[in-house]
Amino acid sequence: MPLCGGYPRAVFSPQGPSLRELCVQALSSVERGYDLLAPKFDHTPFRTPQSILAATTEALSELGPFGEGLDVCCGTGAGMLVLGPLCEGRVTGVDFSAGMLARARDAHPEAAWVRADARALAFVEDFDLAVTFGALGHFLPAERPALFEGVYRALRPDGLFAFPLGAPPPLTSLAHWTTLGFDLAMRVRNVVRRPPFVMYYRITPLSAIRDDLTAAGFSVDVVGLTALGQLANGSPRYGLVLARKPADAY
């Protein structure tokens, strides 16, 4: 989910939401906000770009094929473009926004769709591959353990949880100050208005994500998604986090 700094007309298509609609969404809860945005979500820059989906699919294809697949916080179903080619069994999306699920169901009727809170997944060893795209910023650090423990339970032994994670932008870059400003604005919004809208870009550093995944029982590796470009220092702009449930887990 790329950051949209401001509301440039060149980024939002005519089919996308108006500025007023985005403001109403931002002043709602996360669930209500995404219900409101769902009909136009695929016409915003918040939808995971095809380039990230394609790079993820290519990287995971070297580790598959897989059996059953799960998209955690599936939104309108973009992750099915990854799970579909990689999974030989059924694919399932889970989200707590009824509006998002309705759009996903229309776009991918062949998949199964479940409305649930990702912090309290009820699946037990049902899947071989789980993915998520652009959702981690919706979980406060204290909520990540429940999320990761639920995904761990949902996977079969030797199952894989995979998701792309962008490198932090350089301190001197416009992206750094834009994300910092966005997060500060969201924190102020959540102090003065309830219910909160949790969406932060700076609470998911790789070191913290790795620690939380390891605490949940995963072994963790990261591979560079080189097709998505490099930073000035030569490191990849995006990495693919690969969290593996041990084959002897019980």
> Secondary-structure element order, as H and E?
HHHEHEHEEHEHHEE
Q: What's the total helix number?
A: 8
Determine the CATH superfamily of the largest domain: Vaccinia Virus protein VP39
**Number of DSSP-assigned strands:** 7
- Rounded mean pLDDT score: 87
**What gyration radius follows from the Cα positions, in whole Å?**
17 Å
Largest sheet: 7 strands, mixed
Question: What is the CA-CA span between the terminal residues?
Answer: 34 Å
Pairing-aware structural class of the strands and helices?
Answer: alpha/beta
Unreliable spans are 1-11
Shape: globular
Strand arrangement in the largest pleated sheet: 3-2-1-4-5-7-6
CATH class of the largest domain: Alpha Beta
Share of helix, binned: 25-40%
CATH topology tier name of the largest domain: Rossmann fold
Label the CATH architecture of the largest domain.
3-Layer(aba) Sandwich
Give the oligomer, counting copies of the same chain as homo and different chains as hetero: single chain
Binned strand content: 15-25%
Count of folded domains: 2
Keywords: Methyltransferase, Transferase
Organism: Rugosimonospora acidiphila
Protein name: Class I SAM-dependent methyltransferase
Pfam family, one: Methyltransf_25
Describe the structure.
By secondary structure, the protein is α/β, with parallel strands linked by helices. The protein has two domains: 31 residues, no CATH class; 160 residues, Rossmann fold, CATH 3.40.50.150. Helix content is 34%, strand content 17%. Strands 3-2-1-4-5-7-6 form a seven-stranded mixed β-sheet, sandwiched between helices. Helix 5 links the parallel strand 2 and strand 3. It is globular and about 50 Å long.
